[in-house]
Design goal:
five-stranded antiparallel sheet, Alpha-Beta Plaits, 5 domains, alpha+beta
Length: 679
């Protein structure tokens, strides 16, 4: 009986993704001067593993490249050839092709047949000593060939599934009409030919009719409407699924620069330095879908809440009569917490999942921009919740690319400043309290305080020279704040930084900048360990209980009337430890009946977010406890000032206050200036 292997294909896709990640990491850390034999063997085993899996599932698309990689690496590991930078380059290109083919099989995205053919050509040339040639020359030749010609029209020709020899014959004939690129659509089991030509649709259809019926061929124009010849001769590329295709909205397209403006790439790129764990291909792990893990965590959360309810009810029982029951409840609580921690650990992933993509990016961008950059990675074993890992990728990528593109200077400029030609870019992660702190630091040009203030004033912002450096750096996070003239000899360090900050804050995190002009910049991102559980401070207003994230609470106290001041039209401020803070009555914000209306009768809780502080006026403090966070937006709608909800021990729902949102909306600039004037 035949076995249906399709049910296991997702496992193959996951494993191949990991193997391709391991391959890239190996290639970027291998010592080209003296390659470690174990690294060479590991690269060979990756190719062999992918090839074996592809053969098992019948994915013939992956076999050609991996078979050629096997042959090439086998020669190197036997000592017939020395591993060189050319091998490294073609292996990286092969990794990209395999990733593209994998996405085609997995997500039904288009693949670039021309790029596949180019890589296969290079591999064959490097395997056969009779035709051995430089990989860059082959790639350049193919690139030049595809861009040649002066044609005015572009068509996509969609063909049905057909014999390879017929497809090759048709492609050869069509290539005589212009520049031809072949793509494969796995979803439709069809081939799409992209033809840039000066002939018409009728002539193309007539040529195809020698092999296919006319109704089997679908021809569409690449561009709608009449465009100029240059536009038509440069058709839009099909969307390819690749993490390297991500754009971040602040790079100048090198194609738009003149030859004089284009940076000249240096022939030598410093090797990437990183703390990387040894690549392992055998694992005692079980693959479980994220949905099942989330369901388990949700059920454990419900168990913790149920225990809290039982414990609350048991508080009225006498210990002498119910000693065994109360001891059992206590033990149940300990077991519930242990189970909760174990379940949460299933969603924890090393931050190396994010960091591992940067060595390749640094290598390629530094070469493109004509820079030398040494990348240093530390703390890549620190773990974060999977949900945070996925959402922090884009902000961190933006910050790293900013450092590469606009922070670190070119070698000639660094020499003039007395610096080493190679810049240093460091990524680090560490635990600090209940948070993970990520730092992106460079030894580049730094930020120019005077020009930031000048630009802020030019845009109509009232800023004083007395602002601290930290307050000045925060200006680049303002929406729409353009820094085209902010940094000396550079541009754009702040473009999109408002988006970066907003994304990080939406995760309950914070971002700050420290910089010294001419010395460098350090950007610090602080994130909670997980979004599912937080340590909270329960406060009461009337009959309602609210939760404040403990990381946002500085202190609480009962105020003295002598320290309270009224500002006309601004409300009250309180003098705390040398500064005046605006007072935010929680009962006014949520329109909740309160037991206390006079500040000196209640409790003030000092809260902080993004360097903003305020004193929150509440009736009572209930206590500190660990909170199981429930998403309120997905179950109801977005509520101002609220980030989520939880179920308390008495079964009632309490809302979790979004301190950042609260302070952003309520902490006006005028009240800040007035409080300073009082001080």
């Amino acid at each position: 009986m035949a076995i249906d292997l399709s049910q296991f294909s997702e496992i193959f896709f996951d494993e191949t993704e990991e193997l391709l990640g391991d391959l890239e990491k190996l290639l970027l850390t291998v010592n080209l001067a003296a390659p470690d034999p174990e690294d060479i063997n590991a690269i060979f085993r990756i190719a062999h593993s992918i090839k074996g899996g592809a053969a098992t599932f019948g994915f013939s698309e992956l076999i050609d490249i991996t078979h050629a990689l096997e042959s090439m690496m086998d020669k190197i590991r036997r000592g017939d050839e020395q591993f060189t930078g050319e091998h490294q380059e073609v292996l990286l290109q092969s990794r990209d092709v395999l990733k593209m083919q994998l996405n085609g099989l997995r997500f039904n995205t288009l693949v670039d047949a021309e790029k596949i053919a180019a890589v296969k050509m290079v591999l064959e040339a490097m395997i056969d000593p009779q035709v051995l040639m430089s990989a860059p020359k082959v790639f350049n030749a193919i690139t030049e060939q595809s861009s040649a010609g002066n044609y005015t029209k572009c068509f996509y020709i969609e063909l049905p599934e057909m014999a390879v020899k017929d497809l090759d014959a048709l492609s050869e004939e069509l290539s005589l009409l212009g520049n031809l690129i072949r793509h494969t659509d796995y979803a439709k089991k069809s081939t799409i030919l992209e033809l840039v030509t000066d002939t018409g649709e009728g002539e193309i259809l007539a040529l195809c009719s020698f092999i296919l019926e006319p109704d089997e061929v679908k021809i569409t124009a690449c561009h709608s409407g009449d465009g100029d010849s240059q536009q038509a001769a440069k058709p839009a590329k099909p969307a390819l699924e690749s993490e390297d295709d991500l754009g971040f909205g602040f790079f100048v397209d090198l194609d738009e620069l003149s030859n004089e403006e284009k940076p000249k790439p240096l022939p030598v790129i410093e090797p990437v330095k990183a703390e990387a764990a040894a690549v392992s291909f055998e694992s005692s792990t079980i693959r479980v879908s994220v949905e099942k893990v989330d369901q388990l965590i949700n059920l454990v959360g419900e168990l913790v809440i149920t225990h809290a309810m039982i414990a609350k009810r048991a508080e009225v029982l006498e210990l002498s009569q119910y000693e065994k029951l109360l001891n059992g409840i206590t033990q149940l609580g300990q077991n519930s917490r242990d189970l909760q921690e174990a379940a949460m650990s299933m969603r924890m992933m090393p931050i190396d999942v994010v960091f591992s993509r940067f060595p390749r990016m640094v290598r390629e961008l530094s070469a493109k921009l004509g820079k030398q950059i040494n990348l240093v990675v530390q703390g890549n074993t620190i773990e974060l919740d999977k949900g945070l890992i996925e959402k922090i990728v884009d902000p961190l990528t933006h910050l790293v690319r900013n450092s590469i593109d606009h922070g670190i200077e070119r070698p000639d400029i660094r020499r003039q400043k007395g610096k080493s030609e190679a810049g240093r870019l460091a990524l680090s992660a560490m635990h600090r309290g209940g948070h993970v702190v990520i730092e992106i630091s460079d030894d580049g040009a730094g930020l120019n305080r005077a020009k930031i203030l000048e630009k802020a004033r030019a845009e109509g912002n009232l800023v004083a020279d007395s602002l601290t450096d930290d307050e000045v750096w925060q200006l680049i996070f303002a929406p729409g704040f353009s820094t085209a003239e902010v940094v000396t000899d550079l541009s754009g360090r702040g473009v999109g930084m408002d988006v970066v900050k907003r994304n990080i804050m939406s995760l309950g995190g914070a971002v700050n900048i420290r910089s010294i002009e001419g010395v460098g910049t350090i950007t610090t991102v602080s994130l909670p360990l997980t979004l599912a559980i937080l340590d909270g401070m329960s406060v009461k207003v009337g009959e309602e209980t609210y939760i404040l994230p403990l990381s946002s609470v500085i202190e609480s106290f009962q105020p003295s009337a002598d320290h309270i001041k009224e500002i006309s039209g601004q409300g009250s401020v309180i003098y705390v430890r040398g500064e005046y803070l605006p007072v935010l009555p929680l009962f006014e914000i949520f329109n909740t009946p309160s037991r206390h209306l006079q500040l000196e009768d209640g409790i003030l809780v000092v809260i902080i977010s993004e360097d903003r502080k305020a004193a929150l006026f509440v009736d009572d403090l209930v206590g500190q406890q660990q909170i199981v966070v429930k998403n309120i937006e997905s179950n109801y709608r977005k509520v101002p000032y609220i980030s989520g909800a939880t179920i308390m021990g008495d079964g009632r729902v309490s809302l979790i206050i979004d301190v950042g949102d609260l302070l952003r909306r309520r902490y006006t600039r005028s009240s800040f200036d007035s409080s300073r004037a009082i001080a």
